[in-house]
Structures are given as C-alpha cells and as structure tokens.
Amino acid sequence: MTQTDNSTIQSLSTEVSKLRQELHLREQLVQQLSQELFRLVKGNTNFKSQPDFSQRHLSELTDLRDQLQAVEEQVTFYQEQINSRDDEIYQLRQSVQELTDRSRMLEQVVQELPQIYRRKFEERMAPVREKVAMLQKENRQLQAELQSVSYRLALKNRNNTRGGIDLPNFPHEDFSQDNMSSIPNT
User: Fold this and answer.
1) pLDDT tens digits, 133-178
2) pTM for the full model?
3) How many CA atoms are closer than 13 Å to the CA of 82, on its beta-carbon side?
4) How confident is the model at residue 35, as a pLDDT?
C-alpha cells in the first residue's frame, strides 16, 4: 500500500466522520423540530379546531415545513454521500486485502527461492555426478589394466634379460702351461 493510498483512506475516513456528525446534528434538529411541532399542536387544543389560522402562524408553519424539507434533502444528500464513501472504503479495503494477500504470497515465494534453486541445482548436478562417478570407475579400471600390463611387461623383460643375453662362445682348447707363458703378465 502506498503513502497516497493511506492518505486517501485517511482523508475519506475523516470526511465520512464529519458527514456523520453533520447528519447526526441534522437528525437532532429534525427531532427537536418535530417535538416542538408536536408540542405546539398537542398543547394548543384550539389549534385543530380553529379553522382560521393567523397569517403569522401559517407563514411560520410554511417556514418550518420548508426547513424540514431542506433538512430532509440535506439528510438524503449526506446519506447518499455516506453510502458512496462507504462503497469507496469497502473497495479500498478489498484492494488492501488483495495487495496484502499478494504481498504475503510474494514473501513466501521469496523465502522458498533458495530451496527451489538448491533443488534445481541438485537436479542439474545429478547427471554430472553420475558422469564423474562413471569416469572415476573407468579411470580405476584403466589404471588396473595399466598396472597389469606394466607388470606383465616387466616380467617379460626380466625373463628376456636372464636367458636372453648372448655371451660369446669360445672354442674349448687345452690351455697348457706353455700357452700361459706366452700371455704377457700385466
């Protein structure tokens, strides 16, 4: 709700209360006039029986009737204004209620947003985690195969080096002492 809405509601409320006070005052005046008229009519028993009213009484009565009609018209006018303002107040209250409900809904959505983002992130991360787990499994298998191949290659190289060194074959001659003397001493 904006500041202008609040001030409008405040001013309407003030005006409605003034109109009600005026209406109450007018109703009191009408009540007093009708009581006074009743008192005059009831107190004056000759009033009904006198067919000839004085000119002054007739003019007062006419004035009172005119005032009464004017007051009734004002009461009707103010009553219509009060009804109109009541309708406006009702509509404003409705819009305030709708805006309050909407505000609450938006606050709830804002509070739920982190959970929604977390859930969406988890949904998006699930395939990535599966892919990482698959790649790690495949990596372990490849490392195991590499170790196995390395081990077999090492065994093969070791077997080839033991029996695979070709040493020269010298002819078997009888070495005698004579031949030994011909070998220079170093």
Assistant:
1) 999 999 999 999 999 999 999 888 888 776 555 555 666 665 555 5
2) 0.36
3) 15
4) 86
Close Cβ partners of 78 (under 8 Å, ≥ 6 residues apart): 19, 22, 23, 26
**185 CB neighbour count, 10 Å cutoff:** 5
Q: How far apart are CA 144 and CA 79, in angstroms?
A: 95
Q: Which two tokens stand for residue 127?
A: 């395939």
The per-residue pLDDT for range 97-115, each reduced to its tens digit, is 999 999 999 999 999 999 9
How far are the Cα atoms of 118, 121, 136, 137 from residue 132, in angstroms, in the given order?
Answer: 20, 16, 6, 9
3-state SS class at 107: helix
Place of tokens 């790690």: 136
